[in-house]
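Hey all, quick one. A colleague (J.T.) asked me to put the 2-Phenylacrylic acid job into the tracker so the inputs and the structure tokens live in one place instead of scattered across chat threads. No bug as far as I know, just bookkeeping. Sequence used:
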Amino acid sequence: MPHRTATLFDPVHAGDLALANRIVMAPLTRNRAPLAMPTALMAEYYRQRASAGLIITEATAISQQGQGYADVPGLYAEEQVEAWKPVTHGVHQAGGKIVCQLWHVGRVSHTSLQPHGGQPVAPSAITANTKTVLLKDGVPEFVDVSAPRALQAYELPDIVHAYAAAARNAVQTAGFDGVEIHAANGYLLDQFLKAGSNQRRDDFGGSIENRARFVLEVVRAVTDAVGAGKVGIRLSPVTPANDAFDPDPQPLFDYLVRELAIYKLAYIHVIEGATGGPRALPDRPFDYTGLRRAYRAAAGKGAWMVNNGLDKTLAQVAVLDGADLVAFGRPFIANPDLAERLRKGKPLAEGDRNTWYGGGAKGYTDYPTLKG
Ligand code: 8OZ
């Protein structure tokens, strides 16, 4: 048989996940979960997008402490876990696969969202130069994040347990096909990884090995909880999002993916550049091919998922270059049938930015699929 290289539209395995194609719906925060509760409208939104090979849910808090924005969903209270069931059921009925993105925001939060109005927590007591979204009378409002306090070492195991508990809730109860550990975009795990937010002097700060320790403990606990073949992880080596910064990200992330290779994860999800922004940052060079090579050289077998600002042509080039999966974010907002449109080469609809965060069905579940 003549050799044919894989395309975006061919099936693929990512760990235990058998995916119909290589097009992934990236996690998209939409702030439509009042009281951190998934809704029927969310179930409709995800079901509409089930022709993606894989859906990654919007970032979902593993604890109240891990919440940093108004009306984002959680996966720690029993009623939240129950409320996710119609979401996973709808996607499965429509032939799709869905994993839940597990999120702890760390210092990217506000006292009004924290238990007892307390300070957000972080590796070190350094306030991020960033904003969060609160809702005022249902209208999104950007406000400065609150000053965090540094986590004591004795508090870390509770957070690790919260990740594992949320993973069990997702897979064993809510019906998700797996989970994605959110270690990107300047949230808690990325805060530990990067020197700009981590000035700890204990075993969780300082050297690369120490800064990677917390995320690797989370990976161990989550893979123990649900099986490594159901676990992915999202990384963003150079994003400036939420004030993330490391002066020397290449050896840090090369080390991290070599350690991740040990865990036999379903996939590694890499944001190239800044989410929703440029794919290359002149003052933050990074070799993504080198990162993938470091993972493969360490016998990492997980699917390699690339993300950020890719169109069909760039996605096809990425697959030819060795990516197994391509995650699209914004295009999925206004194109529920994105996979079909890409396959047929049809034009893509533009979403309305005013309805990205908060609100109801408008700009959420009312984008049509292609006719005919
Ligand atoms: C946009 C708005 C709020 C949160 C991320 C979870 O950047 C997010 C997020 C994006 O990963």
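Adding what we noticed when we looked at it: The first helix runs from residue 40 to 48. The domain at 12-355 is CATH 3.20.20.70 (TIM Barrel).
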